Amino acid sequence: METIVAITDYQLMQAWTQVLTLSKVKEGQAVTILTGENTHPQTLRTAHMALEAMRAVVTQVHLPPVNAEKSLSRDLVSFLGETALTNNPAAIAALKSSDLVLDLMTLLFSPEQLEILKGGTKILLAVEPPEVLCRLVPTIDDKVRVKEATSRLAAARMMRVTSEAGTDLTCPLGEFPALSEYGFVDEPGRWDHWPSGFTLTWPNERQTCGTIIIDKGDILLPQKTYVSEPIALTVEGGYATDIRGGVDAELLRDYMESFDDPEGYAISHIGWGLQPRARWSQMGLYDREAQIGMDARAFEGNFLFSLGPNNEAGGERTTACHIDIPLRRCTVSLDGTPVVENGRVIEN
User: What is the chain's pLDDT, residue by residue, as a tens digit (348 residues)?
Assistant: First the structure.
């Protein structure tokens, strides 16, 4: 794919400097940059520049692509099978001995990532196009807002999601932690994703029930498509047991069937977007393979739910199938109190 440079190295270096400063990088700290064949050269180049200016000790680990022969998509999060760290103790040792890992490759939902984090190493994922990184460079205010929402989510024992389109979903909570994604890593053992800006948790195992209507204009990821006609999901015992609708529903069913794994139909993480600088419309302005869709995941007021694994939260469910679906115009209530009303975030 042709590399398009939309911003200057100076701009992206400045963005890196802000993120690394928020991530508390200090002189002499060990920072490993993890790269693969899809790593954007400008993102890598400017990360090196920023780290050198901060006098960090920089190492680069380059790993080969995996799962291409199994996945239907080139999207970096479309197939959560083995990673390039699987059975690679040398690379794992290098990452575990680092204060910070900049993941420019993508290690989501892998046991190797969890092992590295447990040792206190911080991991920051950054794989969106450089101009998206600059537009959505995180701030302290982002952290404050997301952490406040996460505190409300952590204290709740029931989430209910409704919409005029017909969604009515009940999600008992408390079995899994509530997490914050605000775009930088300022605590030992923390993972985050630049760009981001949302709060999330996982519902209690096998307890979520109701109906989800994926309405016109809602988004399917990794397909990176806006739904053109409603898709109805019936949820029973924590799993999507029926997927109905027109061609969009057929495409979703066929994609999920390709994994041949019933665990892929489980309700995974749930939460809502809190990033006012992220835009619902942005995805339609990019080629599908140019990004992984963080604007779609983070735009303010969306209800983001996922199908697939829960091992990132400490659960036992692992599956290669992982689908993120941001819905617009939903009302999200915690223990009966709305936190999002018809797609609008309700502040404390």
Answer: 455 668 999 999 999 999 999 999 999 999 999 999 899 999 999 999 999 999 999 999 999 877 666 667 776 676 666 778 888 999 999 999 999 999 999 887 778 888 999 999 999 999 999 999 999 999 999 999 999 999 999 999 999 999 999 999 999 999 999 999 999 999 999 999 999 999 999 999 999 999 999 999 999 999 999 999 999 999 999 999 999 999 999 999 999 999 999 999 999 999 999 999 999 999 999 998 899 999 999 999 999 999 999 888 888 888 889 999 999 999 999 999 999 999 999 987
Q: C-alpha dihedral over 323, 327, 331, 335, to 10 degrees?
A: 10
Residues 232 and 311 in one domain: yes
Kindly state whether residue 268 falls inside one of the protein's structural domains.
yes
Are 322 and 308 in contact, with CB atoms under 8 Å apart?
yes
**184 and 317 belong to one structural domain:** yes
* Cβ partners under 8 Å of residue 291, min gap 6: 128, 129, 132, 224, 283
Residues 218, 182: Cα–Cα separation, whole Å: 23
Judgement on whether residues 144 and 215 belong to the same structural domain of the protein: yes
Q: Closest by alpha carbon to 314, among 163, 177, 184?
A: 177
Whether 160 and 126 share a structural domain: no
Are 293 and 336 contained in the same domain? yes
Question: Strands, DSSP E only, in the chain?
Answer: 30-35, 57-62, 100-103, 122-125, 158-163, 168-172, 179-181, 191-193, 198-201, 209-214, 219-220, 225-226, 231-236, 239-245, 267-273, 303-307, 323-327, 330-334, 337-341, 344-345
- Please state whether the peptide bond connecting residue 230 to the residue before it is cis, i.e. omega within 30 degrees of 0: no
Identity at 313, one-letter amino acid code: A
Number of domains in the chain: 2
Amino acid at 284: G
Q: Are residues 77 and 144 in the same domain?
A: no
Judge contact between 326 and 219, C-beta under 8 A: yes
Query: Could you tell me if 320 and 257 lie in one domain?
Result: yes
> What number of other Cβ atoms are within 10 A of residue 172's Cβ?
17
pTM score: 0.94
Q: Are residues 206 and 279 in the same domain?
A: yes
